[in-house]
Amino acid sequence: MESYSDQQLWRLLKSGDRLAFEMIYRRYVRSLYREISKRIENLEIAEDLTQDIFLTLWEKREAYQPKGDIFPYLYGMAMNRVLNYYRKNKVQPKFIEIWENMSDDLSETSELSAAFRHTQSEEMESLVANTISSLPTRMLQVYQLRYEKDLSIAEIAKTLSTSPNTIHNQLKTIRKRVSEALKNTSYLLYLSYFLLY
Predict the structure, then answer these.
(1) CA distance 138 to 182
(2) What is the sign of the dihedral through the CA atoms of 21, 39, 76 and 28?
(3) What are phi and psi of 90, to 5 degrees?
(4) Which residue in 8, 75, 136, 149 has the most C-beta neighbors within 10 A?
(5) Which of 137, 143, 133 is nearest to 174 (CA)?
(6) Residues 6+ apart with CB under 8 A from 62
(7) Rounded to an integer, what distance in angstroms lies between the CA atom of residue 146 and that of residue 149?
(8) Start and end of every RNA polymerase sigma factor 70 region 4 type domain (predicted)?
């Protein structure tokens, strides 16, 4: 199974093949742990979150429908858990960093979209809503198609009769505008307090 592609392993996993699951685990566990531990200093928590990803993957294997390689999907699951950890522990400024530095390819995962929706507090929801509502018409369409209808960049480009590169650029602009809005929240004061004291 070492030479099996992600899609071959995924088909076997969905049928309940434990060897396929173990191969996916061995192929990606270190990368996922590394990504999580970059964002959460407590290594025990990072380890727990990493293991939880694979437990969930096994338990819900029949429901998941990843497109292409498995890692971006697992990465989305990882960021979902990281952001939920931030939310529960009131470390909200981290939301800005991940949102702002997220790659376009990874931003297409439904798990990651869900992660951002779940981590918004009332204040953040209000700021995001105001920022989104002030977007130019075409950019607003891009936002709605990507984050509300979960279309891929290619699908959005086809729907709006434009190039994928244009959609990439508009998504970057949207994330930048949201980031700038969130930087004005009280969460940065919260972070500054702990950095200074």
Answers:
(1) 22
(2) negative
(3) 55, 45
(4) 75
(5) 143
(6) 14
(7) 6
(8) 129-177
Q: DSSP class of residue 144?
A: I
Q: What amino acid occupies position 85?
A: Y
| pTM strictly above 0.85 | no
**Architecture of the domain delimited by 120-197:** Orthogonal Bundle (1.10)
Q: Do domains 1-90 and 120-197 have the same CATH topology?
A: no
User: Within 10 A of 49 (CB to CB), how many other CB atoms are there?
Assistant: 23
State both tokens at 126: 């209000």
* Cβ contacts of 153 within 8 Å, gap of 6 or more: 104, 108, 146, 164, 167, 168, 171
Locate the domains of the chain by residue range: 1-90, 120-197
Q: Beta-strand (E) ranges in the chain?
A: none
pLDDT digits (tens, 9 = 90+) for 67-123: 667 888 888 888 888 877 877 776 654 555 555 555 555 555 555 555 444 444 445
Residue 167: closest CA among 140, 194, 142? 142
